[in-house]
Write a structure and sequence with these properties.
This protein has a 7-stranded mixed β-sheet with strand order 3-2-1-4-5-7-6, sandwiched between helices. The protein contains 5 helices and 7 strands, in the order αβαβαββαβαββ. It has a single domain, classed as 3-Layer(aba) Sandwich (Rossmann fold). It is an alpha/beta fold. The structure holds S-adenosylmethionine. The site of S-adenosylmethionine has 20 residues, from strand 2.
Length: 175
């Protein structure tokens, strides 16, 4: 496992192996969003797992797990999340069967809206209460269209979520 950065920056800044910018404010914003919906968080497509490990280290009693694809494991893509909190699937369109027990899904720079559509098709109606998506604003529309087609119709953007101006944190909840 790689060591977590000792200090989080005040201003959103980039870190090797992480697609989005990181800041103290991002962790605070996500803490606030997660606390709205008690229960576990599942990060789908966690990559190196840096954000997830920072959330784990900075938010008291946060129950967060993550899922990545198996090929990525052999390439050692997960560098920060404890392995006992990781789950692996076989390929790009495979679903983690335990996803229905999470209260929140965290999608950080998801690549393909079809995977989100597939997850919603299979797991809507379980424990899931909110979906949090961090992505470039220019890409959100592709994911919003999918989410709007589901029961998660209460969609907001978190103000000042601690990202670069071109990025956003979007939250979809059940009405
Ligand atoms: C653009 S990367 C984002 C990685 C990380 N969240 C970040 O922001 O740095 C998308 C990640 O989704 C993973 N992924 C793709 N399909 C997946 C699936 N079906 N289940 C889990 N992870 C998947 C990829 O392996 C990749 O690491």
């Amino acid at each position: 496992m790689s060591e977590l950065p000792k200090h989080l920056p005040d201003e959103p800044s980039f870190h090797a192996g992480c697609c989005h910018s990181l800041s103290k404010q991002l962790i605070t914003s996500l803490d606030h969003v997660f606390s709205h919906t008690p229960g576990s968080v599942l990060s789908i497509g966690s990559g190196a797992g840096l954000l997830e490990a920072l959330l784990l280290a900075n938010i008291d009693a946060l129950n967060i797990q993550a899922v990545e694809i198996q090929d990525s494991k052999s390439l050692g893509i997960n560098r920060y999340m404890p392995e006992d909190l990781m789950h692996y699937v076989g390929g790009t369109y495979d679903l983690f069967p335990g996803a229905g027990t999470a209260a929140t899904w965290l999608l950080v720079y998801p690549r393909d809206p079809r995977l989100v559509a597939k997850y919603l098709e299979h797991f809507q109606g379980g424990s899931l209460r909110q979906i949090v998506c961090i992505c470039p604003r220019s890409e959100w529309q592709r994911f919003e269209d999918i989410v709007r087609d589901s029961s998660f119709k209460e969609i907001t953007e978190v103000e000042d979520s601690g990202l670069q101006a071109y990025e956003g944190t979007f939250v979809a909840r059940l009405p």
